Amino acid sequence: MKISQITLTATAAVEVGRKTADLSMTKTAARTEVAEGSAIRFRLTVTNAGPFPATDPVVDDVLPPGLKFSQASGDGTYDETTGEWKPGAIGVGLSKTINVVAIVENGAAENGDITNTATARQLTLEDDPDLSNNSDDASITPRGLDIQVLKSASTSSAAEGAGPKNGLEAS
User: Fold this and answer.
1) Mind giving me the DSSP string for 8-44?
2) Which of 89, 98, 124, 170 could be joined to 74 by an S-S link, Cβ 3.0–4.6 Å?
3) 16 CB-contact burial (10 Å; exposed 0-12 / middle 13-18 / buried 19+)
4) d(Cα 48, Cα 53) in Å, to the nearest integer?
5) Strand extents, DSSP E, 18-148
6) Would the pTM of this model clear 0.85, i.e. be above it?
7) 3-state secondary structure (DSSP) of residue 96
8) What residues have CB less than 8 Å from 82, skipping those under 6 apart?
């Protein structure tokens, strides 16, 4: 009996290079003029154009001076202290959305328009081939309260020794 030697060869495909996930950011405000003390809703949407899933995207959305965090609802979690929104993994061609509500602080109108910017990035090793669409902003114009205080004095109907009548009116 003759024994032959048998050689087996195995090949494996190895992906070279990094995976890419093209994230884009869209941010809108529910309205552009907001009274001090009122709430404003910002809608943030992050989209993945691929060609690979985004496994760990993060959106930085720190509220600027003049806005105070109230609440957030939608996909993922929002950390009001750091301004980080973690929407969770996003498949190719899919989007995730969150609504962030803030209160316009009293005195904000004195500083003019408020611009709120959101920027999408990845925590993992995926590259983003197009960073030009990773940020978007929404601007609002805070409006202060228009209050006038008028004071008047009248001596026409004052009785002798009674002094003038004072009146205070707010509008």
Assistant:
1) ---------S--BEEEEEEEEES-SEEETT-EEEEEE
2) 98
3) exposed
4) 7
5) 21-29, 33-35, 39-51, 57-60, 67-74, 77-79, 84-86, 95-104, 114-122, 135-143
6) no
7) strand
8) 62
Rounded Cα distance between 154 and 48, Å, is 71
Non-local (6+) Cβ contacts of 116 within 8 A are 27, 29, 42, 61, 63, 64, 67, 102, 137, 138, 139, 140
CA 14 to chain centre: 39
pLDDT tens for the chain, residues 1 to 171: 565 666 555 444 434 557 899 999 999 999 999 999 999 999 999 999 999 999 999 999 999 999 999 999 999 999 999 999 999 999 999 999 999 999 999 999 999 999 999 999 998 767 899 999 999 999 999 999 766 566 666 655 555 666 556 555 555
Distance of CA 10 to the CA centre of its chain: 51
Closest CA to 50 of 1, 116, 95, 109: 95
| 150 burial type by CB count under 10 A (0-12 exposed, 13-18 middle, 19+ buried) | exposed
Distances (CA, A) of 44 to 26, 72, 93, 161: 6, 11, 16, 68
